C-alpha cells in the first residue's frame, strides 16, 4: 500500500502529556460550514485532554482533452477557496492539508493513513485516536465517561492495542463491478472480511494505530478504510 504525500507540520505543538483523545475529522475543502458547526457545538466545551484536527485532501486535479491539468470545476467555490482556507488555518490552527492526496472517494484510505501518521508524528502523547467525519456529532462528555469506566480498563486488563466502535461481523466483499464498494478477488480473495468497526466513527488506542501503520506495507489496500484498517490490517497486526 504505497502513496506519496507530505505531512504538514503544525503551527504550534498540538498535544501534551495531558492529551487523552486525539480526534481526526475528515472534511472536504469546501465544507467550512460543517467545520465551524463543530467548533461552535460539540467541540466548544470539550473536556480537558481533547485535541481535534480537520484533515483536508488536495483539490481534485484532472486532465482535459488536450492532456492539460485542470482543477475539477465541481470542487471550485465562487470565492477563492485556497486563500479562504489559508485564513481559516491561520485563525484556528486546527486544519491539516494532506498534500499529494486528491480529494476523491477512492483516496479515502490514503487520507486516513496520512491522518494516522500525522497523529503518530505530532501528537504521540494521545492515548486514544478517534476517526470521524465532519457531518457527525460526538458527545464528548459521554465518551470520556466510558473511557474512564470501560475503555481504560479494557486496555489495562486485556489488550493495549484495541479499537472500539459499532462492530460489523461476518460481512462479505461485494463483487459487483458497478458497486461503490466493489472489491475484486485478486485484491481480496477471501469470502469474508475480518470483523471490523463501522467507519462513520470509531476509536482506537494510539498503540493500535502504531501497530496498524507498521502492518500496512504487508497488506494489499482496498478503498474502504474501515474494513482495511480496523479489519484486514488490524488482523495482520494482531
How many DSSP-defined strands? 8
Whole-number mean pLDDT: 91
Cα-atom radius of gyration: 18 Å
Widest sheet: strand ordering: 5-2-1-6-8-7
Derived from helix and strand composition plus strand pairing, the structural class reads alpha/beta
Q: Give the terminus-to-terminus CA distance.
A: 18 Å
Which range does the strand content fall in?
Answer: 15-25%
Low-confidence stretches: 63-73
| Secondary structure tally, helices | 6
Q: What percentage of residues falls in helices of 4 or more residues?
A: 25-40%
Most strands sheet: 6 strands, mixed
Could you give the order of the helices and strands? Answer: EHEEEHEHEHEEHH
What general outline do the C-alpha atoms trace?
Answer: globular
How are the SSEs ordered, and which strands pair?
Elements (H helix, E strand, L loop, with lengths): L20 E7 L4 H9 L9 E9 L2 E3 L5 E3 L9 H12 L2 E8 L5 H15 L5 E6 L6 H18 L5 E6 L27 E10 H10 L9 H13 L1
Parallel strand pairs: 1-2, 1-6, 2-5
Antiparallel strand pairs: 3-4, 6-8, 7-8
Helix pairs in contact: 3-5, 3-6, 5-6
What report would you give on this structure?
GO terms for molecular function: hexosyltransferase activity. It comes from Meloidogyne javanica (Root-knot nematode worm). Its EC number is 2.4.1.-. With 238 residues, this protein is an alpha/beta fold. Helices cover 32% and strands 22% of the residues. It has helices spanning 32-40, 81-92, 108-122, 140-157, 206-215, 225-237; strands spanning 21-27, 50-58, 61-63, 69-71, 95-102, 128-133, 163-168, 196-205. The strands form two sheets. Strands 5-2-1-6-8-7 form a six-stranded mixed beta sheet. Strands 3-4 form a two-stranded antiparallel sheet. It is globular and about 50 Å long. The chain starts with 20 loop residues before the first strand and ends with a helix. 31% of the residues are buried.
